[in-house]
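forwarding from the other thread:

> can someone predict this with shikimate-3-phosphate?

sure thing
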Amino acid sequence: MNIILIGFMGVGKSAVGRLLAERLNLSYLDSDELIEETEGRKISEIFAKEGEDYFRGLETEVIKTLIEYDAFVASTGGGIVLREENVKMLKEIGPLILLTARPEIIYERIRSANDRPLLEQGGKLGQIKELLLKRAPIYNKAADYTIDTSDAPVETVVEEIIKYVQSKS
Ligand code: S3P
């Protein structure tokens, strides 16, 4: 079994993914980490030197390698669903669990980080709202199941995902 976590920056994909993998005894993978490993440089550097399109191409390549693996939970970069072919391939790998959060919560979670090239200095609230609005229909269309993590502890989100995947198997 594989489970794919999708959603905007700061919705908790990594924290949830790690615990979920532990609970289900699955491996944990992160598309951003895989890209940084194969490229040997940080996402911010790839964006700065090669641009967003190049990065999106790397995301597609990572998905192609994921198809060869089994028994993992994968967290994905917030923009991975922007390419339709990515969504199609991801759906062949496992259910797409969409994590969401209110923009104010996302802002609080990511404002001290400076590793999100699409949001300068961790992201202004206005920027987050604008990008969320643009992407919401794409996330919703791709999702097999959606959980709002705004007020839910990681533990609760993980339990809800486990219930969902068990109800499907
Ligand atoms: C991006 C999200 C980031 C990373 C890159 C682009 C996006 O991943 O892939 O900075 O377009 O939303 P996280 O969602 O893990 O922060």
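The first strand starts at residue 2 and ends at 6. thats all i got for now
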